[in-house]
Amino acid sequence: MSAARTAVVGGIALLAACTIRTTGRPTPPYYPPPPQPQAPPRDEPPRERPGPSTAVTLGVPPGHLPRAGECRVWIPGTPPGRQPRPRSRPCERIASAAPAGSWIVYRPTYDRRLVYVRVVDERRPGIVLRVWIFDVETKQLLREEAPEEEPRQYVRPREEQPRDQQPPPGYRPPPPQQRPPENKPPAPPAQRPPMPPPEIVRPVPPQPEQRPPENKPPEQPPPEQRPPEQRPPEQRPLEQPSVPSGAVTLDVPPGHLPEPGECRVWIPGTPPGRQPRPKSRPCEGIAALAPAGSWILYRPSQDRHVLHVRVVDERRAGVVIRVRIYDIDTNRLLREENP
């Protein structure tokens, strides 16, 4: 054991000697460099942070786009198999069937590479807020317009026109040609009207002598004649408002009537507990939600004893064909009017 310890101690001493010979001298201590003066900061304008991306892409598959010249209703975020039907229909009155937050997709006939998307308000059905114009191939948004500024014709910019139709650089359209002035003959000088001839004074012929009138007896007035008796005109009774022959009564309970100045949808023949909600809401845009054969109840705020019932067509939803006015106290029909 003593020999092994001696060998270990000798190895450590030999290693230390080699380390001292290799370095030559011990490592000097490290001192950090002195701080250097910094230039004063410059007054630079604050940089604006880039806002969030507002890129909008068309999320409608090509096979679900309407035909050229027609429209369809599309619900963003809904699978294609659950979208409203039909896929393509005429654009007339399609806004009344568009629910809140939906799109009205339209393909113009003059350029089938474009798709017009009319964005409906998220709270009010049928109210279009803006119009987006997309490219069908890239599905990128080209521009955004207001509903009243939607153009009827689309003119391609100069970069998209074919080269054979582009005007050469520096070309300016010629000014409109002006017609030369017509050589009209000079107007004749104004002539004074001719003077009237002098009046000729003719002598007055002598008048014959007039005899005095003869004394005739005064004429007696004719005997008095009584005027013919005139009967007073017959007074017809006042015409009452026309009411349908059938006795029509109001079958809406008083507790289910809307608030004054508001409306609600009512399904005739359905129990009150199964009627559409809410019981009372603003009248704006309610016709678009009224199904076929339903009633739109309205209580005017000026006369709370009267109820206006707008009858919807039994085959066409949202189309009002007549208006009936009832008395709330007696549930009787007062009159019927046209919408």
Oligomeric organization of the protein chains = single chain
Low-pLDDT stretches: 48-54, 149-161, 238-247
Identify the strand order in the major beta sheet: 1-2-3-4-5
Averaged pLDDT: 76
- How many distinct helices? 1
Cα gyration radius (Å): 50 Å
Number of strands: 10
**What letter string, H or E per element, gives the SSE order?**
HEEEEEEEEEE
Main structural class: mainly beta
Query: β content, as a range?
Result: 15-25%
Largest sheet: 5 strands, antiparallel
- The helix content is under 10%
- The general outline is elongated
User: In angstroms, what separates the terminal alpha carbons?
Assistant: 122 Å
Description:
This protein has 339 residues and is mainly β. Among the domains are: 62-149, no CATH class; 254-337, no CATH class. It has 1 helix and 10 strands, in the order H-E-E-E-E-E-E-E-E-E-E. It has one helix at residues 2-23; strands spanning 71-74, 103-106, 114-120, 128-135, 141-145, 263-266, 295-298, 306-312, 320-327, 332-337. A hairpin with a 7-residue loop joins strand 7 (295-298) and strand 8.
Task: List the topology elements.
Layout: H1 2-23, E1 71-74, E2 103-106, E3 114-120, E4 128-135, E5 141-145, E6 263-266, E7 295-298, E8 306-312, E9 320-327, E10 332-337
Antiparallel strand pairs: 1-2, 2-3, 3-4, 4-5, 6-7, 7-8, 8-9, 9-10
